[in-house]
Amino acid sequence: MGLLNNREIHRCHAFTLIESVVAIIVVMICFWLSTMIYVNITRSDARMDRLKSFSEVRQQAVETHRQKCYFDEETTVDSLYIKKVIEPYQNDPNLKILSIEAQNSKKKKIAVYKQIIIVP
After folding, report:
1. Among 58, 86, 82, residue whose Cα is nearest residue 71
2. Full DSSP string of 43-78
3. 0.70 exceeded by the pTM?
4. What is the pLDDT of residues 51-80, one digit of tens each?
5. In 4, 11, 31, 66, which residue has its Cα 20 to 30 A from 92's Cα atom?
6. CB 73 within 8 A of CB 61
7. What is the CA radius of gyration of the chain?
């Protein structure tokens, strides 16, 4: 009885090199996916700001035409700085260029709208 039977031997289960590499790859894929999700969330926030600024610039252009107030103007809407400029077009007194641009709080241009208009 001094010798142990094969059935009585308890083997310790250890990881093989291949199992360790597979586990590391799975962890890296999870990390990569979470990083991509984070990047997309931060980009979507910037996209929402751009979409909001394009909408506001377009609304300013519609209001300018509706009210027929063709003069330079600077306004602030939420965190957007909006600048409207009316300039002459090719020395024609009836044609003007309506330029509206929106800037964020860091004074970076986000949206620009330009149109040639007829002013009576």
Report:
1. 86
2. HHHHHHHHHHHHHHHHHHHHHHHHHT--S-EEEEET
3. no
4. 888 998 999 999 988 988 888 999 888 888
5. 66
6. no
7. 32
